[in-house]
Amino acid sequence: MELLHNLALGMSVVMTVDNLMYCFFGALLGTVVGVLPGVGPVVTIALLLPMTFGLPAVTAIIMLAGIYYGAQYGGSTTAILMKLPGEPSSVVTAIDGHAMAQKGQAGVALGIAAIGSFIAGSIAALFMALFSPALASLALEFGPADNFALMAFGLIGAVVLARGDPLKAIAMVLTGLVFGLVGTDVSSNQPRLSFGFSSLADGISFVVISMGLVGVSEIIANLERPEGERSIQHRIGRVWPDRAAFAASWRAILRGTGIGSLLGVLPGAGAALAAFTAYSTEKKLAKDPSRFGQGAIEGVAAPESANNAAAQTALVPLLTLGLPSGASTALLLGALTIQGIVPGPQIMDDMPDLFWGVIASMWIGNIMLVVLNLPLIGLWVRMMRIPYRLLYPAILLFCAIGVFSLSSNPADVFLTAIFGLLGYVFIKLDCDPAPLLLGFILGPLMEEDFRRALIITQGDFGVFVSRPISATLLAAALVLLITLLVPAIRRGREVAFQE
Amino acid sequence: MSSLSSLLSNRFFSNGVSSALRQKDFLAGLLFLLIGIVVTVQGAELAQGSAQRMGPGYLPLRLGLLLGALGFVIALRGLRGADDPLPAFAPLPIVAGTVGLLGFGFAIETTGLVPASALLIVAARVASWKGARFELPLLVLALSAIVVLVFRYGLGLPVDLWPDLSGWGG
Predict the structure, then answer these.
(1) Does ipTM come in above 0.90?
(2) Under an 8 A CB cutoff, do B28 and A424 touch?
(3) Is B25 helix (H, G, I), strand (E, B) or coil?
(4) Residue A173 and residue A283 in contact, taking contact as beta carbons nearer than 8 Å
(5) A185 to chain B nearest CA, in Å?
(6) What pTM value is reported for the model?
């Protein structure tokens, strides 16, 4: 009964004209920017963040949530129509989705992706509503040492699922932590690592880091690839799947939803792992696995449901523990911080309207995505044909103004240029920026908990192993770390990634 | 020691020093080592405090050392691993992106939003000059209009649109 009461509260928050409008705006903008070629979901969220800064907290978060799943859906659309997955979570969608598109069934692939995402999103929202209070009440028992251990575990989880070499991913996490140290030390009021620049005294804004590292650097990297003929499917065909298509895919949608809802809660790139697991599950269960890769509709329905469910349940640890699971949720955490909201177990008691409003808005947002996407697919296709030479000046300009609008300080724009160059170097060196972003956002929070834990115990590091929660989490992190670094297991992981 | 000398002979003398120095992992390790050293040196200059009462330099020093050590390991491994050279850098996109942003940063407070936007777009387009003759002016017009509408009027960003010329007349 309490659940119904809470959901009703959430609905009452969303059902204001303003919030509905911003939820719609968010989903629309997220999809529009997300379908642009060369603009992945993380860049989309970073680009659109400044639009939410002037809004009241609840409205801003609702709009952000809309941007978040709009961007996810935009990424799937480019995966199906152009075989260009915007981020790892839609890589498997591209396989059968694009094969369907080449057979003239692009519309059905997009339709089942939208419907699967909607079903997954609705079930996952319910899952969130059921699961979050339990997790939050568990987390209320957490002391500073436990919080520190939890975030350490989250960072290692991000390393496990980062692309490429784990040693470099760990180094990127450490680099992120170091960038997070820049600024004034809270307890002594002394500047740290600011190299005498007054604009670094307040630390580096996460908007600057994310726009530079993922936005600007990707523009530079995209520009050096020759703009060849992209294979966009012009024939979309019917969008609403027929009875046979539904019959073939409803089980895949439900299984994908289950897999995604569970895996999304794990730290690391939960949505990518969920999509991959859902795809291989369907392939194993299929009577004729050879259809996969040739345009099997389950091969679209399952991973799309899974990544949407996971994208949503990833908000459970984000809101109740303050633990982001990937680059996109790390950006959401940064945006929450700018709004003055500190996610954590107390958020459900302190700000029930915010928490339940977000859950309700996800459901509403998913309806909007279906309503928006099915009729507008033709428009998305046309937007994909915009040549990159017209797009990238616009993206760069929005980066520049977005960063400048933070505090009307040109130094932020200069810093973005520097991080753009650094990000480009990282791309060349095969260093995935996601672990750095996560380290950067979690760094200051971890430092605070680390310090507090040691103040309480008067400098005794034993607290991290004597508290059962902290000890368990750190042990789990250690096990993960060892499995990463032992060569035999690593080879297995590489095989799994290639499959 | 023997492994070190075999390492050196393999990479340095059979393929040449320059080939060793072009390895992706070696360069990545070097970059992390460099960041680690800078942070360590900066951190060491600040008060350290104790675990119970950490000074501002406590964590920078330790994280810097850790990052530097890890960078060293990655660099060493890069010398020994399979040949994986750094791909070429494209100078034009780098210059276009960077100059565009820097130009915008310098122009925004002196000339206002519209000229700064135009400057960024023109600088950025240096990286790809293709397209019809009127494409660039049209792009400048369209994007400036969007930006002014969204940021100045939509979001109320307190910024001038044009340079302040009032002082010039007198």
Answers:
(1) no
(2) no
(3) helix
(4) no
(5) 6
(6) 0.86
